[in-house]
Specification:
alpha+beta; single chain; GIY-YIG endonuclease; disordered C terminus
Length: about 110
């Protein structure tokens, strides 16, 4: 079964945030980290994965991404800090533990 991910990247703690969606989180964050695509994350050096959720359908992930993008910055910071209070870059962790144990699957 294919999963879909909504994720937030930052350039530093409480810094610039980017919210995105993908069906391959490891590949997509790798692309951000290595500046393989022109755009916002390359321009502002936003490449630390600090939060993500997993969804069963693209539609539910898209809905969540749109919701988060409309949020006030304060709410996004609270979302990150709820699960990742140290603002650790989760990329290496998910590469080593591809079962994605940090978050439960959402419908």
């Amino acid at each position: 079964m294919k999963n879909f991910f909504v994720y937030i990247l930052c350039n530093k703690r409480n810094g610039t945030l980017y919210t995105g969606i993908t069906s391959d989180l490891i590949k997509r964050v790798y692309e951000h980290k290595n500046k393989l695509s022109d755009g916002f994350t390359k321009k502002y050096n936003v490449h630390n994965l600090v939060w993500y959720e997993i969804y069963e359908t693209a539609e539910s992930a898209i809905t969540r991404e749109k919701q988060i993008k409309k949020w006030e910055r304060k709410w996004k910071l609270e979302l990150i800090e709820k699960d990742n209070s140290n603002w650790n870059d989760l990329y290496d962790y998910i590469c080593e533990n591809s079962g994605f144990p940090l978050k439960g699957l959402r419908e």
